[in-house]
Specification:
Blueprint: H1 4-14, H2 24-31, H3 35-72, H4 81-107, H5 113-125, H6 128-136, H7 142-166, E1 171-173, E2 178-180, H8 187-207, H9 213-222, E3 231-232, H10 240-251, H11 253-267, H12 276-294, H13 296-306, E4 318-319, H14 321-330, H15 337-355, E5 359-363, E6 369-372, H16 374-380, H17 384-387, H18 399-408, E7 413-421, E8 424-437, E9 440-452, H19 454-500, H20 505-532, E10 542-545, H21 546-557, E11 567-571, E12 577-580, H22 582-599, E13 605-612, E14 616-623, H23 630-633, H24 653-663, E15 667-671, E16 682-689
Parallel strand pairs: 11-13
Antiparallel strand pairs: 1-2, 3-4, 5-6, 5-9, 7-8, 8-9, 10-12, 13-14, 14-16, 15-16
Length: 698
């Protein structure tokens, strides 16, 4: 826009325009007697002056409203604040334009535009010492700035403003024996004098007076290359809705709700946000938005009055590490030299903690979560974005109880802590260490390390399982040796009795049952040894009818008259046959039916049935008992695990069943409760390979 000025100046001087330089735009057209050019210059000047007046009045009206009107008078909360502000600003715009016109009439067009511009420029220069000191000299304070400004403006008023208003040609200065003339050659004297007086008084007053706490904070915030570090303190309001409720008192409910929602949208936060870090950001954002609407002074008063910090936290104030981290990321490309190297080191250390294969949780003194690394996210299923900046007490169960309980303990290490999570058991090692918080010396925070030992614990359990199996093997060998001889003697006596009383049918039947049971005892001992030494037992592989082995197992269980009276129903299809060892499969069914009977109420019914597919057959045992808790279903097949009273169970029955089914290349599953509506009963399904008749070779 200024490129045309030299050309217009040259044209006016070349044409020897009689008017002053400020009127050369019109004078060139008049000198050339070119009416269109003169009209165009007039319209352009009118547009430029109108635009300047509009910009100046809008800026001055906003400044006057924010710094003069609102600090003295605030609109009532019952009315519409937006309408009040709009009409007040319109009134100020009219008043400023009227004041400008009155000043013009006061000068009576006796001064040219050059003198007016120089006078205004020198007045503006009086603010330069304060602006530069705010950026580069943190010792400067408000008293020094005001004192220097008053002295500088006084010199300016006496040296420039009054001579211009009085239309004086010169002012005699007796002390200097000098005549000061207000023209284009002497204005710099007044400028130098006023500015020098301003700087001298500003410096002396600032040096000999102490700045306030607010001034120190503002100086740090406005210093060059300084990142503003807001304090991390706890607010009385604990949610965005609480913000709206508090701001409704000075702003009204509708406007308060609108301002809170606007701040949340600016920060991309949900309305149900309750994290302390996010609430501090929301408070700062609301203050910034209100500053643009009502001025910084009024906005600060409203926020400090209605959104205060807790007074109990005055003794614990530290810097907001979350804000510093985010600002460093924003300033990353601007950092150079040592600052860039330190930032790279910071990023390296943070990346190390983030990728550490152990959960890391850093807490402040007031238990606000400062760090939550990726291993912690995977272990807990809680994202860092959700918990960072929130209090530890807001964590979901069971992590809240686990971490809070560990913090309250005096021990720094907690080994093999058992934790139930989503129906699964996890084993954890926990460690903690006290560290000083960053930027808050003397305030002790905590670092928690959480190590997942679940896989290691499972391996240890398998090792214990193997050791138990070895113990069972040694036990089985001793049992076989101690029982074998008496069982052989009993079998021989039963055979002799049957031969001697060959004519007695009842004695012969009883003798045969005794011989069969001695054989069964022998098979049980062999099964026990086979379980302990899996693979060493050479089982038979033949066609086995499930209906037959179910009938035999039920017959064996019916011999025990001291157990609970229940009804066994054999519903197996006689055509369903599997491949395996009939005696070992009878052992499987005896154990399953025995457990079902122990869990059933008196008079209950136990059903044994079969279902077949093309390649397999399912042997299903269902009872009407109380069911099996889900927490122990996974341990039912462990050796020596039992839910029965001491002396009533060894914990080997289902372990033997599991071993025999695996030897038959089958699988076993448990459904409990079998009846979801009544929450009762257990269904055990044993799946075995189906026997298929092969046609004879031709």
């Amino acid at each position: 826009m200024s490129l045309a000025v030299p050309l217009i100046l040259w044209a006016g001087m070349r044409l020897e325009v009689a008017a002053g330089p400020e009127y050369f735009t019109l004078g060139v057209g008049l000198a050339l007697e070119n009416e269109p050019l003169t009209l165009l210059a007039y319209i352009g000047g009118l547009s430029a002056s109108s635009g300047l007046i509009i910009v100046l009045t809008l800026a001055l009206s906003g400044m006057t409203l924010n710094h003069l009107v609102l600090p003295l008078y605030q609109p009532p909360a019952e009315g519409n604040i937006y309408n009040w502000l709009k009409w007040t600003r319109r009134a100020l715009i009219f008043a400023i334009i009227a004041a400008g016109y009155a000043f013009y009439r006061l000068l009576d067009a006796r001064q040219n535009l050059s003198n007016l511009g120089v006078t205004a420029f020198v007045a503006t220069l009086q603010f330069l010492p304060g602006v530069l000191s705010l950026l580069y000299w943190q010792t400067a304070n408000r008293r020094g700035f005001i004192a220097g400004l008053l002295v500088g403006m006084t010199v300016w008023l006496l040296g420039m403003m009054l001579p211009m208003l009085g239309n004086l040609q010169g002012v005699h200065l007796p002390l200097l024996n000098f005549v000061y003339v207000l023209d284009d050659t002497g204005w710099h004297l007044a400028a130098i004098a006023s500015l020098a007086s301003n700087v001298l008084v500003f410096s002396l007053v600032s040096i000999f007076t102490e700045p306030s706490v607010e001034e120190r904070s503002a100086g740090e915030a406005c210093a060059v290359d300084n990142v503003r570090r807001p304090q991390r303190r706890e607010l009385l309001a604990t949610s965005a809705q609480a913000f709206a409720d508090q701001l409704a008192r000075p702003l009204g409910a509708k406007i308060a709700q609108r301002e809170v929602k606007q701040a949340l949208r600016d920060l991309h936060l949900p309305f149900d946000e309750s994290r302390p870090f996010a609430l501090r950001r929301l408070r700062d954002r609301i203050e910034a938005n209100l500053s643009g609407l009502m001025g910084p002074s009024v906005a600060q008063d409203i926020v400090e009055t209605f959104l205060p910090y807790k007074t109990a936290s005055e003794d614990y104030v530290t810097e907001d590490i979350h804000f510093i981290e985010s600002r460093l990321e924003d300033y990353r490309s601007r950092l150079t030299g040592l600052a860039a190297e330190l930032d790279a080191l910071r990023r390296y250390h943070r990346q190390t903690l983030q990728e550490l294969p152990m959960g890391v949780c850093s807490l402040s003194k007031d238990r606000e979560i400062l760090m939550w690394n990726r291993a912690m996210e995977e272990l807990t299923g809680i994202s860092a974005e959700r918990v960072i900046g929130s209090c530890l007490a807001t964590l979901d169960a069971p992590w809240k109880g686990l971490l809070e309980g560990f913090i309250q303990r005096a021990d720094e290490h907690l080994h093999k802590q058992r934790l139930s999570l989503d129906g699964q058991v996890r084993w954890l090692n926990l460690h903690k260490a006290a560290i000083d918080e960053p930027l808050a010396p003397g305030s002790s925070g905590l670092v928690l390390l959480v190590e997942d030992l679940t896989e290691t614990q499972l391996l240890e359990n398998k090792l214990v399982h193997s050791e138990r199996l070895a113990s069972i093997g040694r036990l089985a060998a001793g049992v076989a040796h101690e029982i074998g001889n008496p069982i052989t003697g009993i079998a021989c006596l039963a055979q002799n009795l049957r031969e001697e009383r060959e004519g007695d049918t009842e004695v012969g039947e009883i003798s045969s049952q005794i011989v069969d049971q001695t054989k069964r005892v022998t098979r049980i001992v062999r099964s026990l040894m086979s379980f302990a030494h899996a693979g060493s037992h050479k089982q038979a592989s033949e066609e086995v009818c499930l209906a037959d082995i179910a009938r035999e197992a039920i017959a064996l269980l019916s011999l025990n008259r001291e157990s609970i009276e229940v009804q066994f129903l054999n519903l197996c299809d006689p055509t369903h046959c599997v491949v395996g060892d009939p005696q070992r499969l009878v052992q499987v069914l005896v154990n399953l039916l025995s457990n079902a009977r122990d869990a059933s109420p008196p008079g209950g019914t136990i059903r044994v049935r079969s279902e077949a597919t093309e390649h397999s057959v399912d042997l299903i045992v269902e009872d009407e008992g109380s069911g099996i808790p889900k927490a122990i279903v996974g341990r039912l097949f462990e050796p020596f695990f039992t839910t029965k009273d001491p002396g009533k169970g060894t914990g080997l029955g289902l372990a033997l069943v599991y071993s025999i089914v695996e030897e038959h290349y089958g699988r076993i599953t448990i459904d409990s409760p079998a009846d979801p509506e009544r929450q009762r009963g257990t269904r055990i399904r044993v799946t075995l390979p189906r026997h298929v008749d092969t046609p004879p070779a031709p």
